[in-house]
Write a structure and sequence with these properties.
alpha/beta; Helicase, Ruva Protein, domain 3; Rossmann fold; 37% helix; S-adenosyl-L-methionine; PrmC_N
């Protein structure tokens, strides 16, 4: 059987041509051995068991076939939080942290602060906000029961009990409630976008990726309904496609939002747009 370093070298060869063969080989092996990077560096000559080697080959084959590493290992880090992921939800991405950053600028860490994350998936945005605003009340919704269960599991694992996850479409579970902040990373990709057949998104649920009206249907729904759920002075913040800034800003302005702005992601692309309801 190969040693740890030999197994990683083999995996890197199998993954050659991918985005990050060295990192993928390491992360998958750490998951298999339930260890950290220090262990791999300290014991490079340690031999894998027959079972470990066989399983490692199976996992690397999945990655070669294009399956996302996050689905293979069942977790992904977001905002320094380790989140369980599954094919029922999108994989949290670093650029979505820009939405969290902007949200934290708009609300205070107070007991009367109410926040809702629509289409929460893994719960990444809601849980990141709850971790920074422990006094606030954070709510989240998702249409899919398996996504709701996953977000609830993540909240429990992270001991963020102030996050309440409810099943339903967008605002549906929150009749009569008012919020200081509404955030969402809704589906915003055009169903005809050729990128849907490339990379990790091939394995992610299309219902969490695509929307009609060239990707704007769900955003338009949220924007048009948000004023009824926002307190005076409350904010709506949305993640969107790199080329949707003008359309999203136009929707916000048409629905009575003020102080409309757009923030770029870490790659310099327009990614988060928001506005507030005037007092």
């Amino acid at each position: 059987m190969p040693s740890i370093v030999e197994a990683q070298n083999w995996a890197k060869q199998q993954l050659a041509g991918g985005e990050s063969p060295k990192v993928d080989a390491k992360v998958i092996l750490q998951h298999l051995l339930q260890c950290n990077q220090t262990y791999l560096l300290t014991w490079p000559e340690k031999t894998l068991s027959n079972e470990q080697w066989s399983r490692y080959q199976e996992l690397i084959a999945k990655r070669v076939a294009g399956e996302p590493v996050a689905y293979i290992v069942g977790e992904r880090e977001f905002w320094s939080l380790s989140l369980k992921v599954s094919p029922a939800t999108l994989i949290p991405r670093p650029d979505t942290e820009v939405l969290v950053e902007q949200a934290l600028k708009k609300v205070l860490n107070q007991a009367d602060t109410h926040i809702v994350d629509l289409g929460t998936g893994t719960g990444a945005i809601a849980l990141a906000l709850a971790s920074e605003l422990p006094k606030a009340k954070v709510f989240a919704s998702d249409l899919r029961e398996d996504a709701v269960n996953l977000a609830q599991d993540n909240a429990q694992k992270l001991d963020l009990s102030q996050v309440q996850v409810k099943q339903g479409s967008w605002f549906e579970p929150f009749a009569e409630q008012q919020f200081d902040l509404v955030v969402s990373n809704p589906p915003y990709i055009d169903p005809e976008d050729p990128h849907l057949s490339q990379g990790d998104v091939r394995f992610e649920p299309s219902s969490a990726l695509t929307a009609e009206q060239h990707g704007l249907a769900d955003i338009e729904h949220i924007v048009s309904h948000a004023p009824s759920y926002l307190k005076a002075g409350g904010w709506l913040l949305l993640e969107h496609g790199f080329d949707q800034k003008e359309a999203v800003q136009g929707l916000l302005i048409a629905n009575g939002f003020a102080e409309v702005f757009t923030e770029q992601d870490y790659g310099g692309m327009d990614r988060v747009t928001g506005g507030c309801i005037k007092e």
